[in-house]
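Now read these lines:
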Amino acid sequence: MHALQKRACPQCHQSIELHQDKEINHTSESTINFLEKIEQEIGTKIAPFTDISDKSPNVSTMDFCASGLLKSALSKRRPTTLCGLWKGVQEE
């Protein structure tokens, strides 16, 4: 069993879709291989880099506003499981 699967919320991990930016360390061959393995092993969907726009005005909104606010709100909770994180996100 994959280490992430042990920590993942069994009822949540298949409904997750991971989106990353095109930062060089996110597009490396080793990262892509790891993401493909995660997708196959636990069913977490990975958004293809071809679906991520480089210059969309919508891309940075989450990076610079909503994500920061959510991170700040969740930092007080310190969840230890994925289920705990999702619960905190829903409550915030």
